[in-house]
Amino acid sequence: MPSELFTADLNSLLNPAIIQKLGPRPSITHVLRAYVLLGRIMSLHNNLHRSRENGEFKTEFTQLEVIAGLFEFTISRFAAEETPLADPKEVWLQLWLQALVQTCMILLYHPAAFSQSTNTSQPIYSEQNRDVTDPNFQRCLDAARRFLAATQRMVDKPASVLMNPFLVKAIFLCGRLISIAWHEGQKQSDRDDIDFLLLLVDRVGEVWEPLAMKYRKGILRDLRIDVDRARQLRVGTGCYLSAECA
């Protein structure tokens, strides 16, 4: 598997020009860069001293949005028919990358926690924008469904591809978003998707049982809430796992 030089410089790690030049096959370098992106997104939203109306915040948000889009475009090539992945490790990395990039997309538009600073204005979601079709929720839901589709393409791959403990947080986030949509729309297809995600958690649990059971409880708990609680999760800090599931 080819490897690329890795730098500790954050700006270089997330340089769009470099991301576009990453190799055509998934590698651990892609994974490391995706984790840097995830960390930058969390740092942006958890900054205690910066208002979301601040120009610096908006500039960095836009930059991270562009980089996340480039990452998604880059990894989409791995699933293309013209570049089939024969190496099981590459397939394993491809799904891990999908989990990371779609998690980045979700947490960019729906942070796991908002700053409690008095300078912090309304979050990206607001009580005034509760419609299930609002753009930010739809972006998160689309990301969840892209990850779901990626996992569905892996069902005929070796079982080890799905036995990655780093997938379960993405599965939980996707389950929560699809659960919100299910509570508000009652579409059977959404319920079927949640059942599939539960099967994925069970597959991970064949090796990582305590971890998988914790997140399985979280998905099932989200299925039992009412529609008002589902809307609270969507407009608030809804990407966390309740202590009840520990």
How would you portray this structure in words?
- This protein is mainly alpha-helical.
- 61% of the residues lie in helices and 0% in strands.
- The chain contains 10 helices and no strands.
- It has helices at residues 10-13, 16-20, 28-45, 55-76, 88-109, 135-152, 168-185, 188-205, 209-224, 227-235.
- α5 (88-109) crosses α7 and α7 (168-185) crosses α10 (227-235).
- The longest helix has 22 residues, at 55-76.
- The radius of gyration is 18 Å and the shape is globular.
- The protein starts with 9 loop residues before the first helix and ends in an 11-residue tail after the last helix.
- Residues 113-132 have low confidence and may be disordered.
Structural shape:
globular
Number of strands: 0
Strand content: under 5%
What sequence of helices (H) and strands (E) makes up the elements?
Answer: HHHHHHHHHH
Largest sheet: none
Helix-strand category: mainly alpha
- The rounded Rg comes to 18 Å
Q: Quickly count the helices.
A: 10
Give the proportion of residues in helices.
55-70%
The overall pLDDT, averaged over residues, is 77
Low-confidence stretches: 113-132
State the distance separating the first and last CA atoms.
Answer: 38 Å
